[in-house]
Structure prediction request, 267 residues.
Amino acid sequence: MMALLTWTLAITALLGAFLAIVRKNPIRGAVGQFASILAVAGLLALQGSELAAVTLAIGFGSALCVFALTVVMLLDVPETEREQERVSRPGVVLSLFLLAPLTALCCGAFMSAEEDMNRISTELAESNLERSAPGDVLAGSWIYAFEAASFLFLAGIVATLFLARRRS
Amino acid sequence: MSLLATEVLALLMLATGASGFLMRRNAIVLFMSLQSMMCGACLLFAAYARLHRDASGEVAILFVIAMALVQSSVGLGLAIANFRSKRRLDVDGTEEVSP
Prediction:
């Protein structure tokens, strides 16, 4: 049952991401992307990272909603403009060069190394390492990075206000 | 899901996002492609955090999400500025948008 759920979530995550880039209308693509985000959050929860799963669902989901809805609805972008987009031809060629070897590499790795990787995972998972709480780690060695992230947010707010202000 | 399957899924999500970023020019689709790439990275972080029983991987996911939020707000500002000056959602010619 758990394996079925995991594979369903994995396929949903991939299909959603794929739909997001192939749909001509970006709002329809955003629905696929939203499904993909929820599926990835489900996969994170199944791996025992519940905090990360909830934060990802809320953070990425709200960012997507704000971005897509604000751009399309507040700016009142017409339907024709949303669907009028020329696909970059060099980009298509580049992505084919990127996707084909990666897919071949994944299939090859999956067929040849699955047993070895499963053995390593089992050995490491059965070792007696205690898993620490994310809050302890965040307040310990990551505290300076945590403070730096707040400056990043501040810089983001200032940059957005500067870019989006109305020119007289 | 085994570690290898998670790695393959993360790699495919990264490749899908990278393809979308290279092929499309719409600002919303570019943003969604970046999100797909970040989702792939988050999956890998979670898998290795579980494998090594170390919560640093989960903390790294929180930072990835923080970065995505900042990126979405700056991207929103850029998209608004671009649409006001060019009446288009395409990112072609964005370098000409004056702040």
Summary: The radius of gyration of chain B is 16 Å. The first helix of chain B runs from residue 3 to 23.
